[in-house]
Amino acid sequence: MEEDPDTYRILRLRAEILELGSAIRQLQREGLDDAAAQILIARKRARLDQLVKTSSAVRPLNIPDIRRS
Known about the structure:
The protein is built from two helices and no strands. It is an all-alpha fold and 69 residues long. The longest helix has 25 residues. The radius of gyration is 14 Å and the shape is elongated.
């Protein structure tokens, strides 16, 4: 079965967000500036939200939500 391009983009963005979150935590532990990473993660989250909304409006997605509350 062929993977939907939107599904692939969503999964890729989620992986990038998790990786950035890890990088931010490491920067914070080391006492370094994490502002650039915070901005980048906010942009990726906004892009993910937009992609999920537009994709789910067209057809339901079968992707579990991994965002933390």
